[in-house]
Amino acid sequence: MFACSNYNQFKEEKMKYALVTGGSRGLGRAVCLKLAEMGIPVVINYQSSEQAAQEVKTECEAQGVQAELLKFNVGDMEAVNAAIDQWEETHPDDYIAYLVNNAGITRDNMMFMMPTEDWAAVLNTSLNGFFYVTRKVLPKMMMRKHGGSIVNMASVTGLKGMPGQTNYGAAKGGIIAATKSLALEVAARNVTVNAVAPGFIESDMTKDLDKDALVPLIPTKRFGKPEEVAALVGFLLSENARYITGEVISINGGLYT
Ligand code: NAP
Questions:
Q1: d(C-alpha 172, C-alpha 12), whole Å
Q2: What is the per-residue DSSP string for 130-168?
Q3: Engineered SS bond to 97: which of 64, 128, 148, 181, CB 3.0-4.6 Å?
């Protein structure tokens, strides 16, 4: 009895980190800063934007939390496994309790003209990336009494469709379906899994879109801000959201309801 309670106490003493994929820019950056504001130590994943990632790290640390960079391509299974193995080796007393699968790319084109590599690249980053990272992180999350929380970045495109985005829509629709199934798999282990489906949000991904044509279509008459998405993600990762799982929450200014 004594040994058992001691063991539980030891388990819960581990520091709970958040891993945010694609944390160097845009929505991922805003999520990292939000989590830091919530006092959660952050692991900032990025692929190529070294300096931007470093700046996010500095900004998180300025809020008084631990922040670390972890460079890997979410679409490269071996790189994912190696990076997370290495992180776990250097953090024997910690675990990733919060995972935000945010990394994603677009390669828009009408389907009849879409190069095979553009189909594959979008599916690989957004959908396979979600699979590789989540599968790697899940076992430790499920072992802990306090469980964990996963938020997957979907899109309005995965719900309603968008011309020129069959690849992106397939990836985001897949994320939504996987979110629902995974939530059922791990609910009893105290792990929540939800998806967020943003509409048009200001970031590098949307900077070349024709805003003058798009804004009139949005009931709130503006693009959303990364900080607004981050606030929603922060809520879904908080203790207040422990009874929410398997949900897809839209944040789109009324674009699609
Ligand atoms: P963004 O400004 O283009 O930033 C993308 C981020 O993902 C960067 O930090 C980038 O890191 C990272 N990334 C890309 N490929 C990666 C890979 N293979 N491995 C690791 N990291 C990778 O995009 P965003 O607008 O912030 O979008 C973030 C997420 O929200 C995406 O999943 C996107 O589909 C979704 N979303 C965005 C909008 C929107 O309107 N912006 C709407 C709906 C959904 P590096 O720069 O270091 O490579």
A1: 34
A2: HHHHHHHHHHHHHHSTT-EEEEEE--HHHHH--TTBHHH
A3: 148
Residue 154, pLDDT > 90, answer: yes
Grade residue 109 by pLDDT with cuts at 50, 70 and 90.
very high
The b/e string for 149-175 (b: 16+ C-beta within 10 A; e otherwise) is bbbbbbbbbbbeebebbbbbbbbbbbb
CB atoms within 10 A of CB 40: 21
- Whether 168 is catalytic is yes
105 lines ligand 1 (CB under 6 A): yes
- 130 in contact with ligand 1, CB cutoff 6 A: no
Q: Which of 46, 168, 243, 256 is catalytic?
A: 168
Whose Cα sits closest to atom 36 in ligand 1? 155
State the CB neighbour count (10 A cutoff) for residue 64. Answer: 9
**Looking at ligand 1, which residue's alpha carbon is closest to its atom 34?**
104
The structure tokens 């391509």 sit at 73
